[in-house]
Each structure stands twice: as structure tokens, then as C-alpha cells.
Amino acid sequence: MQLTRRPVLLAPAGSVQAAKAGLDAGADAIYVGLKGWSRGGAHGELTPRELEQVLVLARQKGAAVQLALNTIPRGREIDYLLERLPELKRWGITGVILNDPGILAYIHRCYPELPLTASIGCGALNVDDVALLEEIGATCIVLPGTVHPAEIAEMRPYVKAQIEVMIHMVDEFHQLGKCWMPSYFRTNPSPMPEMPADGERLTGSIKRGGAGVCFKVCQHPWGLYLNGQKKEERMLPARQVSRAPEVGAYLDAGVDVIKLQGRSLPPELIFPMVRRFRMAIDQVREGRQVLEVPPFELPPSWVVVGR
Amino acid sequence: MAISNMKDLVASDLSPYDAVYLGNLYCRDYEANFLEKLDDLRAGIRHCREAGCKVYLTTYAAPRNYFLPQIRKAIAVAAEEGVDAVEAHNLGVVRILRNEFPALSIHIGGFANVYTDTGALVLRDYGGTRVTPNYELSLEEIEGMAHSTSLPLEILVHGKMPLGISDYCFLLEYEKAWGMQCPDLCQQDLFLRQGDWAMKSTGKGVLSGRDVCMLEYLPRLVAGGFRFFRIEAVSEDPAYRRDIGMVYREALEQACSSAYEIREAWWQKIQAHAKVGLCNGFYFGQSGQLYIGNQQSAVGNQLKVIS
To answer: Considering the domain B2-299 in this protein, what is its CATH number?
Structure first.
């Protein structure tokens, strides 16, 4: 079946060069983090000047830019965020990605016209999760690539909001948005960059510092002890999910946005990854089966450690 | 406290407790989970009532679409039996409760990721009558939330703190090697250790290795207006539930009525059950595994290791 609507391929960019690579490879939109505010962690964030450069590049390609402001702010950080949003909107961002339903509802009340994406960290997995997030102001809701097309087809009739699937991602042991292992072991508060007052990035907390600064506790070698006896040493399971062959099924199910994880990836890996999904989407749009997409495997070291 | 099944409920002394949560929020396959065995759920609710306890139903922390019909059935049974509240750890379940069971009180659980005052207020607007703030919040932040939202907050005062939830039970990989099947596997004494670090595994759930202990701080909590104190004992045995429950019952009565003095016998009981030692969770704004307080002997690592 040939698709009549145009799905959006949303690519990650943790640098100006990565944004260029993603756009050159055919991304319809890119998402970037703003320094200090991004769940992707400190290594995949842009300074305001870099954000401006990315916005210029995107305009040249006719692509949209979403801004991930998805660490959960506290106290004065929330006020500061609210003050900055109109300026960021004027710069040309097309929407904001948020990680806390309360902040999302609050920003929606303050700026009802601003498109708001409920980040994967909001933990939506089922039809009523998606419906609630839409009710409080989300215009787009992100689901993990572990949710199957049939489940999304069940959700579609109940929501008008866009449904976005992170179809290429690391499936860590704990579900995204529901992990406090790293901060149990260690936290390392540090001043939040770009924040003039008392903002604090809580390194170690996935929700308040960002997944990229979580110490990767799940990938340490753990001794597994059964009734006091060591049975073996192991890491907690994690795998790379990359569902290019299923792009057609996801789009048929009503997915609007195909999202790729990887804001810490270098441009030379961003390009083939985005290209692969561009080809898959185009094949579906032309009514072809997705057969001819080149395989794309990230180096094993990236799977969690380098994310 | 929470209890997963009828067998554990009948074996547990409920006399120290005012209320019990029924159900295992981690796994549908947990042995005779109240959420799946609805005749047991009816009997369990009546058992708690006869023991003079309030009784609440807890629900799955990360349900997919295909969980929802069973969750609805369990809630319907709980409603018929006049349960005092239903705990939801998931936005979708909150929405189902609000729309389909408006007469039921809703407790918002710790996996619901309430990090912000605005988040608590969103869930209050959906019918939440009590909220467990996310475990990563400090006591100062929790006190601020209580003040600014006027919502009753539930505080974990003792037990192994949840650190995350997975869709995948890695213990199933050991059925053959250990000669043990699901649902017996996750009921074993299972720890993940690395040096002095330890976490308890329940298959799909990971809990803090150390027991959160707020015994030293009960007077502060009572004076701060908190009235709902939880002992997390879902992965513990009946002796733990009895002993820890009795310690906190006595301590709470003293904290409410007279000069507060911690009895040596309380520490002995607490330490006898703390296999890896004690911590305060995130209440004092530090890493969750630290213990802040006068009882420095609480910190010791007492896990017996046979190598």
C-alpha cells in the first residue's frame, strides 16, 4: 500500500556537524539538546551559538528543529526555562521535548501554541498513557521501539496527537524513565551551564542530569549471588533495537514520526544511520517492501557505554 | 506495606500495620499475584479487613495495552469488595481509574515519576488523593511539595527502595543452569554485587541492596505533617514484615506522644534483617546508598558471601 501522508524522519544531532550529516542523509527534522537541559547528557548538547548555526542549516534544507529540554527542572530552573522559551521560539525551533508531565502541562498553559513532545522519559507504553499525555497538552508522544506496531494501531483511534516511535534505540535493562540505579550509587551535582542563578545538574540522575551522565551502572560487571553464593559475573542485559525492516508496519499502524536515538554519535555514524531509515521510509512511500536497506550496526561499545 | 499473594498474606502478621497494599507491581507471572488471581484478591481484601487493616490494591508499574483488561478486572473486583484505594504507578492506569472508577480513591505510586509540584497537581486533577514522590527527591523537596500542593504524601520509611523496572526477566536465563523455574526463581535471595555495592534483584525489578531506614528521623517526619509511612517489604519474608513493622509501630507511637528515644532493641531487629546495611535513600540530597545519622553501625556491610 502506498502512503498518502508524509511521515517525518527525526534524526539526532549532538553537534553542528552531526546536524549537517543528518540533514544531508535525508532527515526531515532533527532534535538537539540545549546545554544543561538535555537528557542526552553533557556530551550531546549545543551551546546557544551552535543552536543558531543548526537552525540556519535546517532552514536551508527546509527541515524542522526540535529542542530537547528534557532534564526535569527544579525551583528557579523552571522559571528560567519559562523565560527562555519565547526567545528560543523566535530563533526558529519548531517544538520542545519535555520529560515531566507536570512541566509539560505547565508550559502548555503558558504557551498553548507551542508544540510539545512528551519525551520517551514520560514512560508512555499504553493507550491510556498516550491519551492522558495528550489531554494535558502534548502534541506528540514518544514511544520506545519495543512497542509493536499492533499496539500502536490500537492507540491510534484514541488520540489526535502525533505518535513518534524511537525505532532505533538502545533497549536498556530498565525501562527508559524508570531507573534510579545510578544515583543510588553516586551523584555529582554540578552547576548548570547557561543558567545564571542556582541551577544544578545532578550527574548520576537519569531524570535530572540526563541519561548520558548516568555512569552506565547497568553495564558494570556485577556478581550475581544466589542465596549468598556467587553464581557468575555479568552485565544487565541491553540490546540495540533497529527496526528498519518494520518501518512499513509502524507507518501503517499510524506512526507519524520515526525517531532515531543517538545524540552522542559522531557525524560519520549519523549519516549511514539516517540514510538507512530514509531509504526504508521512501521504499514504503513508493509502495515497495523494505528489503534493500543497508544494515547498520553500531559498535558494541556504543550500545550503552557510548550512548 | 505491600504483599504479592495470598500465601504471603496469610503468613504475615498484619498487627503492626494500619494498611496493606495487595499485588505485585513488577511481574504478571509472580506466583499467584493478587492482580491475576482475582478470587485470591477477594479473599485477601477480606482477610485484611478482618485483621483490622485498611486495604489498597496496587497495580502494574509499566503496563502495555494487553495488561489493561486484566487491570480493569482487578480494579473492578477491588471496587466491589470496597477497597480503600487503588495505587497507580502509571499515567494510563490513573486515567482508567478517573474515567471508569470515579468513586475509588487513587494513590499515586513511586513509579509514577512525581518529581515536581506541578506533576503532583496534574495527578491531583486526575483524582489522585495521595502521592508517593519519586524516590530521588530530597526530604526538603518533599516538604516543599507537601506545602505547595496540600496533597497527603506517602513516605518510604524503611525497606529496599525500588531502583527500576524492566520488561525482561533475566533470571529466566538461569532456569536450566540452576534447576529452578519461574515463579520460584525471583523468590530466592538474589543480589547483584560489585565490591561494596549491592542491589537486590527480583528479576524484572531491582531494589536497593541496603534498607532505607528513617528511624532516626521519624520525629521530623511527624512534625513535618507527614502521616503515611510505608515499609517496603514486597520482596521480604514474614519475619521481616513482623519485626520491622513492630519496630516502626512502637517508634511511631513514641514519636507522636513523647520524647523520642531510639531503643537498642529496635536497632538490633533492624540490623538483623538488613543484609547489606542501611541507607537513607535520597532524603538528604545525596547518593541513595549513604546513611546519614548518628547510628553509624547501621552502615556496615553484612552480606554473607560464600565464594
So the answer is: 3.20.20
